[in-house]
Design brief:
Mean pLDDT of chain C: 88
Strand content of chain D: 15-25%
Number of domains of chain C: 2
Strand order of the largest sheet of chain C: 6-7-8-3-9-10
Shape of chain D: globular
Bound molecules: adenosine-5'-triphosphate, magnesium ion
Mean pLDDT of chain D: 88
Number of helices of chain D: 14
Oligomer: heteropentamer
Low-confidence stretches of chain D: none
Radius of gyration of chain D: 20 Å
Structural class of chain C: alpha+beta
Shape of chain C: elongated
Strand content of chain C: 25-35%
Distance between the termini of chain D: 49 Å
Number of strands of chain C: 18
Largest interface: A-B, 82 and 93 residues
Structural class of chain D: alpha/beta
Chains: A mainly alpha, B mainly alpha, C alpha+beta, D alpha/beta
CATH superfamily of the largest domain in chain C: P-loop containing nucleotide triphosphate hydrolases
Order of helices and strands of chain C: EEEHEEEHHHEHEHEEHHEEEEEEEE
CATH topology of the largest domain in chain C: Rossmann fold
CATH class of the largest domain in chain C: Alpha Beta
Number of helices of chain C: 8
Helix content of chain C: 25-40%
Number of strands of chain D: 13
């Protein structure tokens, strides 16, 4: 056997475990759920079929289309805000914090997430409530006369999400900032660029792949999450994952729930296509 | 400019720590409800949690599931990233997309699908099946991080090792893995974080031995309680202590 | 646009380390000065102080008579060609070259025109739409030069711009740098650790060692009449023969005390100074000459390197009678 | 060993340990929430995996339809000692065969903070949408009881809800939603009530307030004039159990006075025992919290959850979804 | 341990591109062969085929008489010194050097001893515990050499190992490579595009161009008697004068037709061939000589590069009478 063939066999051998795992424990279950999304409910029984009815319902029923729209709006808002908050934070850690403290700074940013997602979400409820810390502080400072209604609104959902994803994005953006050779910024300064121009013309474009990778991850994880809108959002509006849970909760409408999940994946696939150009994973 | 930046840093950390401070503070609540006002300070809830066999067992289960599943995801992701970075396999772009695809699919779907597949195979739900599910969601993460981190630098070193007579396994173990140590650590800890907090798959794919999020979920069914805060706080305080200690030791050794 | 440069008792410390203990240097407008010295001697540090990337611990830097204290790189009349080029990978060549003009608020069409002209100057006409990664090392180097020159700096700083190129390309780029400088008239301060490069391009070579200026002058002077042993050794291969009151291990050669320095090409079969007989240890053909290691018969523990004519390839063990010229005696 | 698929009140060691020591076995419990989740878990299991099932009384029929429950000897169960109407034969039996037995019940009505609202107002559902309490109401996030309550408010008995008259509930439900601040699960509802975020929980009851009593004695609940809903949970033996005898023993233990007393005051949530003889084993304080003495009156005024067929169920769910997204 | 090498009609294609159209080469055991050629001519490709990093499209490679087909790099009796060294950054120098021995199952203490000895050989005794990043470029290069030699390969392959070093260090390392090869006796196949380096170290230079062998032989032969114009130009600067039946633009010089090649150092103020008068265009001091561009008076459009003695720095416009020696006429 030639070297090239041996090389290829080795490659397949190394990739095989991951591919096999993905095939057995992802593709197969996913195929089952995909098939289910075309099934029909007759009474309370799931009847196998090739019925696009569930997808038609999603497209036509205002409540479902509305949930889809809410999900996309929230995910986009969260992604945008998180990027705007995380970028300066990552930049400060990368450029202003002394090198030896940078790792500690990052680890500290991750630690709060080693508690418990659910408990943390309830803690947010206390922070954002009418008698919570935020309103208490603002009232104490006489900045507001009546408490702000934050808890049980979309704002609370967004804040809860932003909290988590600011951490995640700080990590990915930081990584793309520190691996940038410092000479680019110097060259720009040397040619007469001020701080803002350096950022705008050099640092920002060069860190874009890291930002987009993190933003994509944020969008995907955010649009698929159930807990934050459920706890913090107070059901002020429904998101797609909540709708999925509702279909499953008592009536067990698996076909519709599966179709909703597939629709969710379709949105993610669109996001993937939009971000594709900049995603690290597909650079060959 | 600089004071502004430091102020921003402080504000950002305040934001990140705000709910955790609240969470920890009310774990000391002397009363049945972890809501303001703080009525007094007690360690009773910690005592209660630590003497609750179910919680302690769930803690260990969670740690085991998170550690083992992250390790498996790391190894699989590492091998696959290595293969794709090194050998030009036909259809490799499509296969790479396939490996990262689970990231885009709701855990609920993965969990339900796995449940029916396992049932079809006659496999009982257990911590092992939950771990398998966690590998499915962590593998894309590990793969993506490691694939992005692999560069010409270690390709050259790997080649040198082969030239000096190293078998493929030893190349991986003695050269590639140590050189990728930072990326491996990052991938491992992110996986650990995700697995630690994962609920839906763990709920669907376990029976009587459950992980911490599932245990917390059932504790929550009887309503909010400082005991639940104490569980979160305990994990936080222990990991924070460990990390800060490790960091200080490392720093001291280096200087 | 060109300006002179004054470096006035400039000291640079990093923590405890004194990297530049005190540099005084005067560079005339339009001069091509090369800073030459071994790795770590402080060349980049000095260049960074001129460019404004760092501020000296003490001392003053004047460009065109204006004190640069407190003025950032953005506002100095200098630009730099970096060793790794630092071309912006996300911009086309034209955008790279026009970047400085854009920062100065020059309009789009004027910018484009000038970028085209600068790419022309460095022999890359018509490549404006390409991206840096499509270029070879030598081409990138030229783009970096064009980018730095596009804003018509008064002083151009070059930090080992040819270090990453292969020898042949390097020699070609040296000729080009020299001719471009002649064309634009800008003051060039060029850093290198390659003495052949320094001699090929410099109006004046400034030899640095451990943060101090060891020697300076036109190439010929620095090469043939070095002020110190360090300079002598750094400018090219050299044979050192100890000398005390005119006496050496080879007998009386020249008057004086210290070290007698002889370049390998100054030793041969004729010349004013008789070195006596020497045994050939090894010899290798070097194209333009044959390079041989020899041991004088009178002092067999001494080793001399000599360049012999192309045709003579002596066998090891052969004994030659050697003469020398151009002696330099240094303390 | 006994494997039980249960609600959280069955995980209290105080409830399980006496049975375990008496029979020398361990009882493994897995909790679930929502009938569909429980039925899915059963469906995705091998025969013999489960021995005992706890399920919403109104959903016993679904479990029987799916063949998940085994028949129990009716004579072994102390239904004679139950509170009147709690044997719930129409739910627990099919064609004269007993498949489950009621074990615990309570009410979904209106819970409130006595100091913040006028308790008299709480006796009338109309006051919720009168404007007086706008923004101070929380709704419990479960469509069956809340739609049931709304129906009662419109003078429709829960058993009479049909696809035809469901439409007439849309406007009142929307009005309630408008007056409410949030629609949320048990914990968020409790938190909101405890922090004063809201003062009224529609759909709440003793199961919501009992655990908060200690810290906040001002919490109260009532069944308004128009009526309230009664929830009930049943327990049965799973078909195909490997230990049918032990499983039956467990069911008998749960509905025995001892088991009932412990279940009523289980750490997860409190509720009335179906077996009235459990009263002998409860303390006076416990009975006070459970409002033992007022049960005859409550039982008379409360109605069961609606029991929709599949089509009506999904119509209710759609109405609920629409209300949430309004 | 040393072995010869046979490359037998080796062809290498990448997709449509034919990088090596067919190489035949015989290398004797213990020989120091340098592959010399411009960038992209296929040197690294050939070296990779010998090392086993790739397999030829057709043809055979034999080492010590054994056909290497199907044998991976791990099992070939070759080791490589890479251009970027490819040292293992996470290991100490001693561990780097001992790596190959470890792979061969040599015990810990024997490994340590041998690593120490190899570091000794390359002048790094006592540095075994350091890590690669603490070393300068030249030192790293030596460690890479020690690592490759530690396993006593039959053939050592070196891919531009000195490319990243500065000139002075490069010359020093060339001397060292040569003497280490003499000591260990291993066959060295060394790749470079620096012809000075090739001449300094090679027993035999193999000049490659576009995947073919243009010329080969000892340095002197390749430099002074090149077989082709390409070789002549690549081995050093050259002046080309067209020649038709003994007639040239400068008048009759030597018999023959084609191109008369004269090296700059072969032109001067004396010699057998009279070139006539020439006007100096520019001249620069180059240390060992003065390099001047001149235009012959008889053919003013022709440009000649000549090396004049150090002392003579003619002014532009000055007219010299030039003579030449060592003429080579190539078709
Ligand atoms: N930021 C710094 N902190 C501490 N020491 C420094 C710093 N920058 C440079 N040095 C030290 O100052 C000395 C001079 O460095 P510099 O970079 O100027 O050398 P150089 O002459 O440019 O060398 P090379 O030819 O290798 O580029 C070195 O010993 C270096 O270690
Ligand atoms: N894997 C490959 N696929 C396609 N073409 C290749 C590949 N490897 C090398 N080549 C081409 O083969 C030719 C020879 O490359 P090689 O690396 O052998 O040159 P080289 O002589 O080592 O040059 P250098 O001195 O720049 O290292 C080049 O034109 C190169 O582009
Ligand atoms: Mg430098
Ligand atoms: Mg090469």
């Amino acid at each position: 056997m030639g070297l090239a063939a041996r090389e290829a066999r080795l490659g397949w051998g190394l990739a095989a475990p991951a591919l096999a795992w993905t095939g057995a424990f992802f593709v197969l279950p996913f195929a089952v759920m995909l098939a289910l999304s075309f099934a029909r409910m007759e009474g309370r029984a799931v009847v196998p079929a090739l019925d696009p009815g569930n997808y038609l319902r999603i497209a036509t029923e205002p409540a479902m289309a509305g949930a889809l729209a809410n999900s996309i709006e929230i995910a986009l808002t969260v992604t945008l805000i998180s990027v705007l908050l995380a970028y300066p934070l990552a930049a400060i850690v990368a450029f202003l914090v002394p090198r030896r403290w940078q790792r500690l700074a990052l680890v500290l940013a991750v630690l709060p997430f080693w508690t418990s997602y659910v408990v943390r979400s309830y803690a947010w409820l206390l922070v954002l409530g009418q008698k919570g810390i935020v309103n208490g502080t603002l009232e104490g400072l006489h900045l507001i006369s009546a408490p702000l209604e934050i808890a049980a609104t979309r704002s609370a959902t967004v804040i809860g999400f932003v909290h988590f994803f600011t951490m995640l994005l700080t990590l990915t953006i930081y990584a793309s900032l520190v691996q940038m050779p410092p000479n680019y910024a110097r060259a720009a300064a040397d040619l007469g660029a001020g701080r803002w121009a350096i950022f705008r013309h050099v640092i920002l474009p060069l860190s874009l792949p890291g930002v987009v990778t993190g933003a994509f991850l944020t969008f995907v994880l955010c649009i698929g999450d159930y807990i934050t809108p459920q706890i913090l959002g107070g059901n002020a509006e429904l998101t797609l994952p909540q709708l999925i849970m509702l279909q499953l909760g008592r009536s067990g409408n698996f076909p519709l729930a599966s179709a909703l999940a597939v629709a969710l994946m379709g949105v993610v696939a669109l996001a993937y296509a939009a971000a594709f150009r900049w995603l690290r994973i597909d650079r060959t | 400019m600089r004071p502004l930046a430091w102020a921003y840093l402080a504000a950002a950390y305040a934001f990140i720590f705000l709910p955790v401070v609240v969470l920890v503070a009310f774990s000391f609540q002397d009363g049945r409800l972890p809501v303001p006002p703080l009525r007094g300070v007690t360690l009773d809830w910690y005592a209660k949690v630590l003497s609750d066999r179910a919680v302690v067992a769930a803690l260990w289960n969670s740690l085991a599931v998170a550690a083992v599943s992250s390790l498996v995801a790391l190894v699989l992701g590492f091998l696959a990233a290595h293969a794709f970075a090194r050998v030009r396999l036909p259809g490799s772009a499509a296969l790479r997309t396939l490996i990262v695809a689970p990231m885009a699919v709701s855990s609920l779907i993965i969990g339900l699908g796995l449940l029916s597949v396992f049932n079809g195979l006659g496999i009982r739900p257990s911590l092992v099946t939950a771990g398998i599910g966690h590998v499915v969601i962590n593998l894309p993460l590990c793969f993506a991080i490691l694939y992005a981190a692999m560069g010409d630098h270690q390709r050259a070193a790997e080649r040198a090792a082969r030239d000096l007579g190293a078998s493929e396994a030893r190349v991986l173990w003695l050269v590639s893995a140590p050189m990728l140590a930072p990326a491996l650590a990052a991938a491992f800890f992110l996986s650990l974080t995700f697995s630690w907090d994962e609920f839906i798959i763990a709920f669907l794919l376990t029976r009587f031995d459950v992980t911490l999020p599932v245990e917390i979920w059932s504790m929550l069914r009887s309503g909010l309680s400082p005991a639940i805060n104490a569980v979160g706080a305990l994990v936080f305080l222990i990991s924070a202590g460990a990390v800060v200690l490790a960091e200080l030791l490392l720093l001291r050794r280096r200087t | 646009m060109t300006a002179g440069l004054t470096i006035d008792r400039v000291v640079q410390r990093f923590g405890d380390a004194v990297v530049l203990p005190g540099i005084d240097l005067e560079i005339a407008a339009g001069e091509f000065v090369v800073l030459l010295g071994p790795s770590g001697c402080g060349k980049t540090t000095l260049l960074n102080l001129i460019a404004g990337f760092a501020e000296p611990t003490s001392g003053r830097i004047l460009i065109g008579g204006r004190d640069m204290a407190g003025i950032g790189p953005k506002d100095r009349p200098t630009t730099t060609v970096f060793q790794d080029y630092a071309l912006f990978p996300h911009m086309t060549l034209a955008d790279n070259v026009a970047f400085g003009l854009r920062m100065r608020g020059v309009g789009r069409s004027a910018r484009r025109e000038r970028a085209e002209a600068m790419l022309d100057l460095v022999g890359l006409s018509g490549r404006g739409a390409a991206r840096p990664h499509e270029l070879s090392g030598g081409q990138r180097q030229r783009v970096a030069l064009a980018r730095a020159l596009a804003v018509e700096p008064e002083v151009l700083l070059l930090d080992e711009p040819l270090g990453a190129l292969d020898l042949k390309l390097r020699r070609a780029m040296q000729d080009e740098l020299k001719s471009i400088q002649a064309k634009v008239g800008t003051t060039f301060v060029h850093v290198t650790h390659d003495q052949e490069e320094a001699m090929a391009i410099a109006d004046r070579i400034v030899v640095m060692n451990e943060g101090r200026i060891e020697d300076q002058g036109p190439p010929r002077q620095v090469y043939l009449n070095p002020r110190t042993l360090f300079t002598a050794g750094f400018m090219g291969e050299i044979n050192r023969i100890p000398l005390a009151d005119g006496r050496s291990p080879l007998g009386p050669l020249v008057p004086g005390s210290g070290t007698l320095c002889l370049r390998p090409e100054a030793i041969g079969t004729e010349g004013p100074i008789a070195l006596g007989q020497a045994r050939v240890l090894e010899a290798a053909f070097f194209g333009t000459h044959v390079r041989a290691h020899v041991a004088p018969v009178a002092a067999p523990e001494l080793r001399l390197v000599v360049h012999l004519p192309q045709k003579a390839l002596p066998a090891p063990g052969e004994v030659l009678t050697l003469f020398a010229r151009d002696p330099v005696v240094l303390p | 060993e006994l494997n039980a698929l249960v609600w959280c009140d069955h995980t209290d060691p105080a409830l399980l340990e006496p049975f375990e020591t008496a029979h020398g076995v361990t009882v493994n419990v897995k909790e679930y929430e929502g009938t569909a989740a429980g039925l899915t878990l059963l469906q995705q299991s091998q025969p013999g995996d489960w021995d005992v099932l706890v399920i919403d009384a109104v959903d016993v029929g679904r479990a029987v339809d799916a063949g998940f429950l085994a028949e129990m000897p009716a004579e072994a169960l102390p239904t004679a000692d139950f509170f009147p109407g709690l044997a719930m034969e129409e739910n627990n039996t099919r064609d004269g065969r007993t498949y489950a037995v009621t074990e615990k019940f309570g009410y979904n009505t209106i819970a409130f903070d006595r100091t913040k609202v006028d308790p008299a107002d709480m006796e009338d559902m109309a006051s919720l949408t009168s404007g007086k309490y706008d923004g101070r109401i929380g709704i419990y996030d479960y469509y069956l009881p809340v739609i049931g309550l709304v129906a009662l408010g419109q003078g429709i008995a829960t058993a009479d809800i049909t696809a035809e008259n469901l439409g007439s509930l849309r406007a009142p439900l929307a009005a309630l939603r408008k007056a409410a601040r949030q629609v949320s699960d048990v914990v968020a509802s409790q938190t909101a009530l405890a922090t004063g975020e809201v003062d009224i929980i529609v759909g709440g009851g003793e199961w919501l307030t009992a655990v908060l009593m200690q810290d906040n004695p001002n919490l109260d609940w009532t069944i308004p004039r128009q009526g309230g809903l009664r929830w009930a949970q049943s327990i049965g033996v799973v078909a195909g159990s490997r230990n049918p005898d032990l499983a039956l023993e467990f069911v008998k233990y749960i509905v025995s006075p001892e088991g009932q007393a412990r279940l009523a005051t289980s750490s997860c949530y409190w509720g009335m025992p179906a077996n009235a003889r459990a009263g002998d084993l409860l303390t006076d304080e416990q009975k006070a919290v459970l409002r033992w003495d007022r049960q005859p009156e409550y039982l008379a005024r409360a109605q069961l959850y609606p029991i929709p067929d599949a089509a009506l169920d999904s119509a209710m769910q759609d109405m609920w979804t629409e209300m949430l997204n309004q």
